[in-house]
Amino acid sequence: MPFEYDRTIRFAETDAAGVVYFAHVLSLCHEAYEASLIAAGFELKSFFQNSEQAFPIVHASVDFRRPIYCGDRAFISVAPQNSENSSEFNIYYEVFIKNKSVAVAQTRHVCIHPNQRSRQPLSHEILQWIKLYQV
Amino acid sequence: MPFEYDRTIRFAETDAAGVVYFAHVLSLCHEAYEASLIAAGFELKSFFQNSEQAFPIVHASVDFRRPIYCGDRAFISVAPQNSENSSEFNIYYEVFIKNKSVAVAQTRHVCIHPNQRSRQPLSHEILQWIKLYQV
Amino acid sequence: MPFEYDRTIRFAETDAAGVVYFAHVLSLCHEAYEASLIAAGFELKSFFQNSEQAFPIVHASVDFRRPIYCGDRAFISVAPQNSENSSEFNIYYEVFIKNKSVAVAQTRHVCIHPNQRSRQPLSHEILQWIKLYQV
Amino acid sequence: MPFEYDRTIRFAETDAAGVVYFAHVLSLCHEAYEASLIAAGFELKSFFQNSEQAFPIVHASVDFRRPIYCGDRAFISVAPQNSENSSEFNIYYEVFIKNKSVAVAQTRHVCIHPNQRSRQPLSHEILQWIKLYQV
C-alpha cells in the first residue's frame, strides 16, 4: 500500500503565472517521502546526515497534467520499489487535487557511503520501508 | 488567542550548515499566517490574487534563538494586531520546538489597491480575522 | 549553437547533506532558459505574465552525475528543440563544473492560451528563439 | 566602500501576486554577501562548512519600498560593520532597481564554534573582510 500524505499548497510555492512553480512539485513529492520515512520510524535528521549511508537522488522526472493553485489541498501517494540494481530504489509519486490526478513523478535513489561516495547495497532498514509501502 | 500551527521541518529547508536556512523561517511564519486565514474562512487563491485588495508585506524581521533541524516538529503562534495606521496591520510569530522558543518574527502588511498600488483602509473581513486571533 | 549561461552555486541551494538540493538543479536550468530569452530580446516580465500565450512545463526530468557544492561555478548549456507537436517544444540542458558534466536535464513546454488553458501553435517569436539556440 | 553585486530577478523568486516573494529578498541579500566573500578571497564551501568557526544569522530584517518583478536587474550594496560585541557583526544591504531603492535589509551574524555552538571572537580573516567593505 502506498504511503498517503496531504497538505495545503502555499503561497511561497506559486510563481507570477499564478500556479505552482514546476520544480516545487518535486519538492512536494520529496516532502511526502520524508513523511513516509517518519511514519516508518526513521529519525529524519540522522537519516539525512548519516555518515554511514546516504541515498542521494540520481534521477528525477515529473509530468504535469493540471495547474496547481495556492490553497489547493494536495494528496500525494508515495510508492517505493526495488530496482534490479541492489544499491538503488525508485519512488513513484502521484499528486491528486479534488480526486483528480494533477501530476506524477519519480525519483531514483542510490545508496552510497557519504564520504567516499561509493555505492553500497541497500540497508535492511530501507528494504523494510520499501516493503511497507510498495505496490 | 493566537492561531496555532504546527508542521515538521523538511529537508528542502535546510542548508549545508545542517540547519534551517535563515530566510525559510520567515516562509514558515507566512505559511502559518496562511493557515490562520484558511481557519478563519478565507479562500487562499482569491485572497492572494484579489484585484480589489492585496496585503503586501512592507517590513519583516526575525530573531533566531536556537538552530532548527530537519525533522523537528515546529509549533508556530500567529498573533495579528491592528496598527495605528488604518491601512496596516502587524503579525507577531513565535516558533517553538519541544516547548522551547527557537525564533520570533514579525511582518507588517499594508492594504492596497493591487493595480494602482495605492493604500486603502483594512476591509471588514481582515479586521474580523485580526480580532479573532489578536492577543 | 546552445545558449551558454554560468553562475556560482549559492548557499540557499544546498541542503543538510552538504550538496545542492536535487530540485534546485531544475530551477538552475530554468534560470538559464530565462537568460536565453533575455539574450534573444524577450522582456521576462511580460513573457511570463502574458495574457495571449504562456508556455507552461508539462514534463521535466534530470539526471545527476556528480554532487554540486556551494561556491561551485556552474556552466549551463540550453538547447531548445522543436517537437513533432506544433504546440510544444523541448529544452535540453547540461550543467558543467570544472569542465565535467554534473547533470543533464530536459523540460517540455506547451503553448497555451493562459485563460482557457487550451493549446495553440508556437508563436513566430518563440520559433525564432528555438532556431537561434537549437543544436 | 560597500561591495556591489547585481543580478536579474528570476521567475522562481516571484509569487502568484506577480512580484518577488518577500522572504526571497533576504536570500538575494545573502547571495550578495556570498559574492562579497568570494571577492575577498574566501572559498565558499569551506566558509559555510567550517568545523572551526561559523557565522549563523541571529537577526534579520527587511523593509520593502517598491515591488520587484521578474526580469528586473537588481543592484545590491553590501556594507558590513563591526558590532560593539566582539563576536558579532552586522551587514546592511540596499537593493536598487533602475536607480531607485526598492528594499533595505540587515543581518546580524555571530561567530561560533559549530559543534558546541558557543561564541568566539571574530577571526582575523572576517575582520579583514569587514574592513574591506565597511562604510
TrEMBL record, chains A, B, C, D:
<keyword id="KW-0378">Hydrolase</keyword>
<dbReference type="GO" id="GO:0047617">
    <property type="term" value="F:fatty acyl-CoA hydrolase activity"/>
</dbReference>
<dbReference type="InterPro" id="IPR050563">
    <property type="entry name" value="4-hydroxybenzoyl-CoA_TE"/>
</dbReference>
<dbReference type="Pfam" id="PF13279">
    <property type="entry name" value="4HBT_2"/>
</dbReference>
<protein>
    <submittedName>
        <fullName>1,4-dihydroxy-2-naphthoyl-CoA hydrolase</fullName>
    </submittedName>
</protein>
<dbReference type="InterPro" id="IPR029069">
    <property type="entry name" value="HotDog_dom_sf"/>
</dbReference>
